[in-house]
Specification:
The complex is a heterodimer of chains A (444) and B (496). Chain A has 444 residues and is α/β, with parallel strands linked by helices. Helices cover 41% and strands 12% of the residues of chain A. In chain A, the strands form 3 sheets. In chain A, strands 8-7-11-9-10 form a 5-stranded mixed beta sheet, sandwiched between helices. Chain A has a 4-stranded parallel beta sheet with strand order 3-2-1-4, sandwiched between helices. Chain A has a two-stranded antiparallel ribbon with strand order 5-6. In chain A, helix 6 crosses helix 9 (213-231) and helix 12 (339-353) runs antiparallel to helix 15. The longest helix of chain A has 26 residues, at 406-431. Chain B has 496 residues and is of the alpha+beta class. In chain B, the strands form 5 sheets. A 5-stranded mixed beta sheet of chain B has the order 2-1-5-3-4, sandwiched between helices. Among the domains of chain B are: 2-99, Roll (Ubiquitin-like (UB roll)), CATH 3.10.20; 106-224, Alpha-Beta Plaits. In chain B, helix 2 (86-99) packs across helix 3. Chain B has 12 helices and 14 strands. Classes of the chains: A alpha/beta (444), B alpha+beta (496). Chain A binds chain B through residues 171, 188, 190, 193, 351-360, 362-367, 370-371, 373-374, 387, 390, 394, 398-403, and chain B through 41-47, 49, 65-69, 72, 91, 94-95, 98-99, 101-102, 131-134, 137, 157-158, 177, 179-184.
Chain lengths: 444, 496
């Protein structure tokens, strides 16, 4: 499909008057997918989602249908579905728009997914800062209960589901799925050691599926239009790589940073970062050039200007040394900005948000922040660059030195910044100048 | 048993073991902080990262691409563990450097110096220099954390052993982790200090000098202490302990791991209740009450520690032997030996063997323990509220021990409301209510003698090792009180 002909799917109703209400959602064909899927067997729904090639939109890109099949087959007692609405990755705001503007689309996806996974309770974990989202969701859930779309015997199908809205208490780590589960249980959000994976033993020691909000929003459209329609968008599988699951479907790209028109755009997967900035974000501001671009949230690392033609699909950023697509939150950094300042702010964020469970992440993030602070004060040494690199390698090498993947995310900005902008760091240290720019305020 | 290879040394290991235990069997140490045998696994210190691989059916070895935590990784047939590769060593060095980053390095004034895992591991696996140029994070010491324990916050390595202990073993959950990232600390809620009956154990659990015993604080450098294995005399549970003394002064007691007695831990009453041994009035030397020779019978000091009037051991022992023999010869069936439940099993066994060896008609009894007031069970709160069950019955220390053992996984049968202490402590034993008996001795004898506690020995249909003659209330049959128990033991051992 040609991107210019693309009509927004997930954002199709955003901007319409009263888009949050059940009446307008139904008028636009809402809850037809739910009625349709309730007539199917739950395994048929899983197969449909599996065939569509939908991959989780939360960051790791794990195939959603496959995740659902990991639930034990003949389990007695409840299964839980957790919705990860703890959108804390710097630069990311796609869940927020989806929930605020079109909560019923997300909730319909949740009911269908719960039906597919045989979950009888869904927990919506929402970060505390999203007050408007919370109110919009609460209103939508109330409407659903009043119209037999939730509760007992949904639409006469005999299927029961309850949704609980849970507001977190502001921590980046709650976006990690087992950290989220711990937090949901009322404990300190320390990620759990795996195995057991949540599909076997998750929330309240029951089998649990954790899915992202945007993933949920895709589900009703897959049910309505089928797997082929979903696969008509995006980047097909790489035939040379048998482990590639393809990057299908529409994706919300959050564009922020030094661009003329920051915002949220929906496009088929696979647009290049350069096209995204030039065509959809009005180009880099003040007529400058992009020095670096974060392809998918801060933890994914940096791309240089030369790498901007990389397609932003699940494989693209990985090919240029980034961690992955992440949340597709594109942050543009112009050529007047010092990478030392950028990296300092990144490290400061991760040092603040490290949960403190594993030694390498707890101590390493704080140490790297201290080193960069010193470099910014003009007291850096050339050996600091190698030291930063060594710390980054010990925090999160892909060989897992820590329990959760967020340590990898804390290390990646350091690794990519130093690998790709080493000259700038060396020059900065040699010049011995002090940074003029103020540190960004903490995100939480 | 499965065959595991640790650094090319082949060992047989239990399939339930993790890599640390398997390597220990091969005589190889995998350094670790957060892991403890009796606590849950959190795998957070990342000190025990090792390379693990497996042997394929065709004999080839496939090593995993990642370093994995040895504490969390189970073993199976053909598992290969490598602890000496450069990858592992680099990771150990880096983890130690990170742990020492904000550590004050105040070993010279630290109580733990000499038995500190941070010291030991740094010497063995770490490097000599830190590359931190910036100021260290400084934190305030917390003397308020408990009556018996003090927290030196900046020495802490956040292994959370203490936090898990108060949650999982004592069930009181006073200790918490507060704050986040490199600023996090161990702390208590205001006005809820860590004063539970097992609180002293967190000092032993702490691998570094963060949690210290106020009782022992700054009293002695640990390398001057001499260690002796002993058994706690505080109650009839008889925890295995290690006595640390120097120059004939005992400085502290620490539990000695004994899976057949108390496991890893001991109560604070026993731990800190040894002070009486330094009492001036304690009788330290033997004296004969009615000496046979009238020569020194006239002038005797009343001072118990007065050495000049002590009788020499050989004289006293010979006299005791003579008197016991003559008493038994006079009336063998009327000769009764009261074994104290505070004796160790070995002592009781030797005494019983000796007496029964003189004449099989002599009787053995087990004495009760006089106690004023109600027994003091710990944990008071916590998992399953054992105290509620415990309060209803006597001998609550056993309940506590049973619970500890149950939590440690050493026993499958947990005390339930219907069967509070299952077999350890039969409820219908004739024990006068005003004198609470703690019958730990018998249980320990039974345990060590290798009896299956679930199998009645035949003497009593319900309970092993109890002679049915001991049933009934003591007021009706005062002479039979307790007589059957030790006899059963002795018969079992073939002494009588």
């Amino acid at each position: 499909m040609n991107p210019t002909e693309f009509k927004p799917v997930l954002l199709g109703r955003v901007g319409k008057p009263d888009s949050q209400s059940l009446a307008t959602y139904r008028a636009d064909g809402g809850y037809e997918a739910l009625a349709k899927s309730l007539k199917m067997a739950n395994t048929e729904v899983i197969d449909l989602v599996k065939n569509s090639g939908l991959r989780g939109r939360g960051g790791a890109g794990f195939p959603t249908g496959l995740k659902w099949t990991f639930l034990p087959k003949d389990v007695q007692g409840p299964i839980y579905l957790c919705i990860n609405g703890d959108e804390s990755e710097p630069g990311t705001f796609n869940n927020r728009v989806l929930i605020e503007e079109d909560p019923h689309q997300v909730l319909e996806g949740i009911v269908i997914s719960s039906f597919a996974t045989r979950a009888t309770t869904a927990y919506f974990y929402l970060r505390y800062e999203y007050g408007r989202c919370y109110r919009a969701l609460q209103k939508a859930v109330d409407e659903m209960y009043a119209n037999n779309l939730l509760g007992k015997n949904i639409l006469g199908s005999g299927y029961d589901l309850d949704i609980y809205l849970h507001r977190g208490a502001c921590a980046y780590i709650c976006g990690e799925e087992t950290g989220l589960i711990e937090s949901l249980e009322g404990k300190r959000a320390w990620p759990r050691i795996k195995p057991p994976f949540p599909a076997i033993e998750g929330a309240f020691r029951r089998p649990t599926v954790v899915n992202n909000v945007e993933t949920m929003a895709c589900i009703p459209h897959i049910i309505n239009h089928g797997a082929e329609w979903f696969q008509s968008m995006g980047v097909p599988k790489d035939p040379n790589n048998p482990r590639d699951a393809g990057s299908y479907g529409p994706k919300l790209y959050c564009i922020s940073g030094h661009v003329n028109k920051p915002g949220l755009v929906e496009l088929p997967m696979g647009i290049s970062a350069r096209d995204l900035i030039d065509q959809h974000a009005g180009g880099v501001w003040k007529g400058r050039k992009a020095k670096a671009v974060i392809p998918g949230g801060l933890s994914m690392g940096f791309m240089t200007n030369a790498e901007l033609d990389t397609p932003l699909d699940f494989n693209g950023p990985g090919r240029v040394g980034c961690l992955g697509l992440g949340t597709a939150a594109v942050v543009v950094i112009d050529d007047q900005t010092s990478m030392v300042d950028v990296l300092y702010n990144a490290c400061r964020f991760f040092a603040h948000e490290s949960c403190g469970q594993c030694t390498p992440c707890r101590e390493g993030t704080a140490w790297s922040t201290k080193i960069l602070e010193r470099i910014r004060e003009g007291k850096g040494k050339l050996s600091d660059i190698d030291l930063l690199m060594e710390i980054a390698n010990s925090i999160g090498t892909i060989p897992g030195t820590t329990i959760c993947g967020l340590a990898d995310g804390a290390a990646w900005p350091i690794k990519t910044a130093i690998n790709k902008f080493r000259g700038e760091f060396e020059e900065y240290i040699k010049s011995g100048r002090r940074s003029e720019s103020l540190a960004l305020a903490g995100a939480h | 048993m499965v065959k595991v290879k640790v650094n090319d040394i082949e060992v047989d290991a239990d399939p339930k073991d993790n890599c640390i235990l398997a390597a220990r069997k091969a005589g190889i140490e995998i350094p670790h902080y957060c892991w403890h045998e009796s606590l849950s696994v959190v795998a957070s210190c990342r000190m025990c990262l090792v390379e693990v691989g497996e042997t394929k059916p065709d004999g080839t070895v496939a090593m995993g691409p990642k370093l994995v935590p040895g504490c969390q990784t189970p073993i199976k047939e053909g598992t290969i563990i490598r602890t000496d590769s450069s990858k592992v060593k680099t990771s150990q060095q880096m983890t130690l450097e990170l742990l020492l980053l904000n550590h004050p390095l105040d070993c010279s004034i630290c109580d733990q110096a000499g038995e500190c895992y941070l010291q030991d591991y740094t010497y063995k696996y770490g490097k000599a220099h830190s590359r931190l140029d910036e100021p260290k994070i400084q934190r305030e010491d917390k003397y308020h954390i408990g009556e018996q324990i003090a927290l030196f916050t900046d020495r802490c390595v956040m292994c959370t052993r203490c936090v898990r202990f108060t949650r999982e073993i004592s069930g009181t959950a006073e200790l918490q982790v507060v704050a986040r990232g490199s600023h996090e600390e161990i702390d208590v809620f205001p006005e809820t200090p860590c004063n539970n009956k097992l609180a002293g154990n967190v000092v032993d659990l702490c691998p570094v000098g963060a949690l210290c015993s106020k009782d022992f604080l700054y009293k002695k450098r640990v390398w001057w202490l001499k260690h002796a294995d002993s058994v706690c005399t505080g109650c009839s549970t008889g925890c295995s302990v290690q006595v640390d003394q120097n120059d004939n002064k005992v400085y502290r007691l620490r539990p000695r791991e004994n899976p057949q007695a108390q496991g890893h831990f001991m109560c604070d009453e026993g731990r800190f209740g040894f002070k009486y041994i330094h009492d001036e009035r304690r009788i330290k030397y033997p004296r004969l009450k009615n000496p046979p020779s009238s020569a020194n019978a006239t002038v005797r000091s009343t001072a118990p520690s007065d050495l000049s009037f002590a009788d020499p051991w050989p004289t006293v022992l010979a006299e005791a032997r003579k008197r016991i023999h003559s008493a038994i010869q006079n009336d063998p069936s009327g000769f009764v030996v009261v074994l104290s439940p505070f004796m160790t099993v070995e002592e009781a066994y030797l005494l019983a063997s000796y007496i029964k060896g003189i004449d099989a008609r002599t009787k053995l009894t087990l004495g009760p323990v006089p106690v004023v007031g109600s027994d003091d069970p710990a944990p008071l709160r916590g998992l399953g509220h054992p105290c509620r069950i415990a309060r209803k019955i006597l001998g609550q220390r056993l309940v506590r021990r049973r619970w500890i053992q149950h939590w440690l996984g050493q026993r499958e049968d947990r005390p339930s409301r219907r069967n509070p202490v299952a077999v350890d402590r039969p409820r219908h034993l004739p024990i006068p209510t005003e004198r609470t008996g703690r019958c730990g001795l018998r249980c320990r004898i039974v345990r060590r003698a290798g009896w299956n506690l679930r199998q009645p020995c035949g003497a009593s249909p319900k309970h092993p090792c109890i002679d049915s003659s001991s049933r009934g209330s003591p007021s009706r049959r005062p002479d039979s009180y307790g007589t059957g128990r030790a006899c059963g033991l002795v018969q079992r051992h073939g002494v009588a």
